């Protein structure tokens, strides 16, 4: 019998436009990789804390197709200041994309869970 994980936790930081690379939470890391899009098909609750210490727009994006095709990504929510982004929709992949950047640092802590 195979059991799926009940949560998926990643963190990332950026100081420029583009997709924020997300790494395993140090507390949960098993030496795995850093990724731009996260395979989260088993999860139906997505929560992210976004910290913006300057001027930027961060989009929380989801994809239910090929993640290498730009037109498959849709905006779930966005932030221009520190706050929380969430979705209760099921997505095959998620990512955080800095669509506008002027200054500062953006930090994202992401948690996906089974509902």
Q: For the terminal residues, how far apart are their CA atoms?
A: 21 Å
The best one-word shape is globular
H/E order of the elements? EEEEEEEEEEE
Q: Spatial order of the strands in the main sheet?
A: 4-3-1-11-6-9
Number of strands: 11
Describe the largest sheet: 6 strands, antiparallel
Coarse structural class: mainly beta
Supply the CATH class.
Mainly Beta
Low-confidence stretches: 25-33
Total number of domains: 1
Number of helices: 0
**Helix coverage percent:** under 10%
Tell me the strand percentage band. over 45%
CATH third-level topology: Jelly Rolls
- Overall mean confidence score, pLDDT: 80
Q: In angstroms, what is the radius of gyration?
A: 14 Å
Task: Using the 3D structure, state the CATH architecture.
Answer: Sandwich
What's the structural blueprint in terms of helices and strands?
Elements: E1 7-14, E2 18-19, E3 22-24, E4 34-35, E5 38-39, E6 45-52, E7 55-63, E8 73-79, E9 83-87, E10 93-103, E11 106-113
Describe this structure in words.
This protein has 115 residues and is mainly β. The protein has a single domain, classed as Jelly Rolls (Sandwich), CATH 2.60.120. Helix content is 0%, strand content 57%. It has a six-stranded antiparallel sheet, with no helix packed on it. Strands 2, 5, 7, 8 and 10 form a five-stranded antiparallel sheet that branches. The radius of gyration is 14 Å and the shape is globular.
């Amino acid at each position: 019998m195979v059991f799926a994980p009940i949560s998926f936790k990643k963190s990332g930081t950026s100081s420029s436009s583009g997709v924020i690379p997300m790494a395993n939470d140090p507390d949960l890391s098993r030496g795995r990789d850093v990724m731009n899009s996260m395979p989260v098909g088993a999860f139906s609750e997505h929560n992210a804390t976004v910290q913006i210490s300057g001027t930027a727009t961060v989009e929380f994006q989801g994809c239910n197709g090929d993640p290498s095709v730009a037109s498959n990504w849709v905006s779930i929510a966005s932030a221009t200041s520190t706050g929380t982004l969430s979705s209760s929709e099921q997505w095959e992949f998620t990512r955080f994309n800095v669509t506008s950047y002027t200054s500062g640092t953006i930090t994202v802590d992401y948690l996906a869970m089974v509902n």
